[in-house]
Amino acid sequence: MTNATTQSRTAHQRQRRRLLGLAVTLLSAGALRPLAAQPSRPTDARAGPDPELRKILIAAVAEADSFSDRFDAEVWLTDMSHRLAKQVPGATERLAILKAVHKHATHVNVPAELVLAVIDVESNFDRFAISAASALGLMQVMPFWIKELGYKDKNALFGIETNVLLGCQILRFYLEMERGNLVQGLARYNGSVGRRWYSDRVLDRVRTKWFRQ
Description:
- The chain has nine helices and no strands.
- The protein has helices at residues 3-29, 51-62, 73-84, 91-107, 112-123, 144-148, 160-177, 182-190, 197-208.
- The longest helix has 27 residues, at 3-29.
- 28% of the residues are buried.
- Mean pLDDT is 82; it is low at 19-37.
């Protein structure tokens, strides 16, 4: 074995020892500890409070009183009120629902007729509806939002304005997540990702009942 080979091997061994020493130092300081697993974001509206969506909802609640109905709302309200009369006989409650839908759907740039179809399928316009999954109110908002948004109790989600405001924001959030794909966005809203039954029911309700004249 030549001197050059011996010197090269010795230098290599010294380098390895230095690297091992550095690794031990970093490990003892915590620098090489494995990263803690990051919690995955909820995949749909039933899976849990999405942090990004939470910020949107807090902002929406704070500015809710600044919204105003558009000039053409009167024509729309009259038309939709006739269609909703069988499900919500009381004129006061019926108009409160329609005004809230028109206002908040317009604000998030979602067709109000689509929101009406969602409510029709989700709760049959029963503002006190509670699903088997504990979703609440007209748009079946999940109860974990009560704590996340600082509401006192679930009664807040039975309020027409609050429920429709949150429901419209949540719906828009998942439609944008799916880049406007109604089938996939609606499935995320309902917690039925990968299946079409819910989306098909909502879209069929738009075509047959809540279409714009």
